[in-house]
């Protein structure tokens, strides 16, 4: 496999060799789906590429996509590349202000509008001079429709190439703080990184995947979209909605399934809502029966065909990985970022350990700085930050290693364990730094907790805020649930504190009144905590709580 071979070379080979192979399956409502073969995908992409060229765009101009995951996201990106342009994808949950910032900062000339839940609130963020094109599943009246344009436009002909150094995409990081940064990736870097991913996870023709994590994020873009563009003979399914997710998953019967810790935890909590953890654990330990029980649980989740499951984007509790492996699911944790095109570390069947993100990819160099920061050199290294040369100077060492901002340690086998974010460290009044992530991981092992956030900068000691599991939130105001939560959380707090140094120990756990969501600004589009936003919710009551001796407080 030639690592410098462009993805555009591969897709044009698939266009010829796999013309009748179904590549994409898109739900359209009420259980109906539309299949797109490689021949249809490329015909549509070539027609839209010709249309983009007819608009007078210059080579390298930016074309944006604002859409939830769908088949036309893939097709539009291919059209952008075939036409000679650069993709800018925007998270479908972003506010109008962020939509405007990304479109204006990137100088995008055209916007594809796709599947969206909040288009009326987002539309005011689209500058007046930007040409709009609506995907088939876009909100009514968003723009001129895709089908009308491709129906009257002849496809772009011939074999199309792009220079290795041409800019393929700008990915605006969602960020837990501050203004989004535009990470630039070239065709060469993208191709090299995708080759590394396909080799590490042994992706082959015939793989089935479900695309539902945001395609505007590097995790889904690299592993699902770019991986399938390279391999060619696979089948990508899309999720219709949250309500149909389980049906969509069972339709796809994925062989590779990628997710984030929050969803892995919600899957587990859904299982526990039907069977108490102690009962399930007992059954899994019984010889012969345990494998059947594990298979039944995975079948209920739609994951019984998965040969490789991955977790990324945020740390996942080690016990949660162990639990899935007891069910028979090959769950591996990985670690990467937008700046290295998701090529950094990934566990393998031979080299994995719960709590560690695995060894580096074969072509990745890694070292730990004197300050404990993880530094890497990756084939997927960014070109730089769009219009931010000041940031380029900050994030690279003199010898070219990227400063990840993450703290970590490596064991004797070379496996990496992340210990926190450099910028997330805080000092309590005791004068020592506390790393919140490891404590949060431990807290999240308790089934009644969905998410947690540890804080306490300048306070007498650290504290934690927690969101209860979904089934408990429905009754968390009742005396019975409150009594149970206070009892179990109080005991769990003692257990967690017993494993911490004195300066790290939590004084209390604060139970939040509802979930943290992308929509209310407490989570990023990739479900990372926005700590400052969450801390601000409880700040007015902190003094009162610190003066109270109760281990469990209610916000």
Provide a descriptive summary of the structure in words.
By secondary structure, this protein is of the alpha/beta class. It folds into three domains: 7-235, Rossmann fold (3-Layer(aba) Sandwich), CATH 3.40.50.980; 245-419, Rossmann fold (3-Layer(aba) Sandwich), CATH 3.40.50.12780; 425-554, ANL, C-terminal domain (GMP Synthetase, Chain A, domain 3, 2-Layer Sandwich). Helix content is 35%, strand content 22%. The strands form six sheets. An eight-stranded mixed sheet has the order 7-6-5-3-4-8-9-18, with helices on both faces. Helix 1 (7-17) packs across helix 2, helix 2 packs across helix 3 (71-83) and helix 7 (187-200) crosses helix 8 (218-231). The longest helix is centred in the last third of the chain and has 20 residues, at 479-498. The mean pLDDT is 92.
Topology:
Elements lengths: L6 H11 L4 E8 L2 E6 H17 L7 E5 L4 H13 L2 E5 L5 H11 L3 E4 L5 H4 L8 E4 L9 E2 H7 L14 E6 L9 E5 H14 L7 E4 L6 H14 L3 E4 L6 H8 L3 E4 L1 H14 L2 H8 L4 H13 L6 E4 L6 H10 L3 E5 L9 E2 L18 E4 L4 E5 L6 E2 L3 H7 L6 E9 L5 E6 L4 E2 L5 E2 L1 H8 L5 E7 L6 E7 L1 H4 L5 H20 L7 E6 L19 H8 L3 H5 L5 E3 L1
Parallel strand pairs: 1-11, 3-4, 3-5, 4-8, 5-6, 6-7, 10-11, 12-13, 13-14, 24-25, 25-26
Antiparallel strand pairs: 1-2, 8-9, 9-18, 14-15, 16-17, 17-19, 19-20, 21-22, 23-24
Helix pairs in contact: 1-2, 1-8, 2-3, 2-6, 7-8
């Amino acid at each position: 496999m030639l690592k410098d071979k462009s993805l555009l070379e591969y897709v044009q080979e698939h266009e010829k060799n796999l013309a009748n192979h179904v590549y994409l399956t898109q739900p359209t409502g009420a259980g109906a789906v539309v299949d797109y073969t490689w021949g249809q995908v490329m015909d549509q992409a070539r027609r839209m590429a010709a249309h983009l060229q007819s608009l007078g765009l210059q080579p390298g101009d930016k074309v944006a996509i604002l859409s939830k995951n769908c088949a036309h996201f893939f097709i539009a990106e291919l059209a952008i590349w075939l036409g000679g342009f650069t993709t800018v994808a925007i998270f479908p949950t972003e506010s109008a202000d962020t939509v405007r910032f990304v479109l204006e900062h990137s100088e995008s000339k055209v916007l594809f509008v796709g599947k969206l839940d909040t288009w009326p609130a987002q539309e005011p963020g689209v500058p007046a001079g930007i040409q709009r094109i609506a995907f088939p599943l876009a909100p009514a009246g968003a723009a001129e429709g895709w089908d009308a344009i491709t129906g009257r436009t002849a496809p772009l002909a011939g074999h199309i190439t792009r220079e290795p150094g041409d800019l393929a995409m700008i990915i605006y990081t969602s960020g837990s703080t501050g203004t989004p940064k535009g990470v630039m990736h070239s065709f060469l870097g993208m191709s090299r990184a995708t080759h590394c991913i396909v080799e590490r996870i042994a992706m082959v023709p015939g793989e089935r995947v479900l695309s539902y994590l945001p395609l505007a994020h590097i995790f889904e873009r690299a592993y699902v979209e770019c991986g399938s563009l390279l391999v060619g003979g696979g089948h990508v399914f899309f999720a219709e909605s949250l309500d149909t997710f389980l049906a969509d998953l069972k339709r796809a019967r994925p062989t590779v399934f990628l997710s984030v810790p929050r969803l892995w935890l919600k899957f587990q909590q859904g299982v526990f809502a039907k069977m108490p953890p102690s009962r399930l654990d007992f059954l899994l330990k019984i010889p012969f029966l345990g494998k059947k029980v594990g298979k039944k649980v995975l079948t209920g989740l739609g994951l019984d065909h998965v040969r490789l499951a991955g977790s990324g984007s945020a740390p996942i509790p080690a016990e949660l990985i162990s639990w899935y492996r007891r069910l028979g699911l090959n769950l591996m944790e990985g670690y990467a970022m937008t700046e290295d095109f998701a090529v950094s570390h990934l566990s393998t069947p031979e080299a994995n350990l719960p709590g560690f993100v695995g060894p580096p990819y074969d072509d990745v160099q890694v070292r730990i700085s004197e300050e404990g920061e993880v530094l890497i050199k990756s084939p997927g290294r960014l070109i730089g930050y769009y219009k931010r040369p000041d940031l380029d100077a900050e994030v690279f060492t003199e010898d070219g290693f990227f400063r990840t901002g993450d703290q970590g340690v490596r064991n004797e086998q070379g496996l990496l364990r992340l210990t926190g974010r450099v910028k997330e460290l805080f000092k309590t009044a005791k004068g020592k730094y506390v790393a919140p992530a490891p404590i949060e991981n431990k807290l999240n092992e308790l089934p009644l907790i969905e998410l947690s956030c540890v804080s306490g900068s300048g306070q007498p000691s650290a504290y934690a805020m927690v969101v209860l599991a979904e089934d408990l939130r429905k009754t968390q105001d009742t005396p019975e649930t409150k009594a149970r939560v206070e009892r179990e959380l109080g005991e769990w707090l003692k257990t967690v504190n017993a494993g911490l140094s004195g300066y790290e120990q939590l004084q209390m756990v604060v139970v939040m009144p509802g979930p943290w969501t992308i929509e209310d600004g407490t989570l990023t589009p990739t479900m990372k905590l926005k700590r400052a936003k969450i801390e601000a919710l409880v700040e007015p009551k902190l003094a009162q709580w610190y003066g109270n001796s109760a281990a469990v407080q209610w916000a």
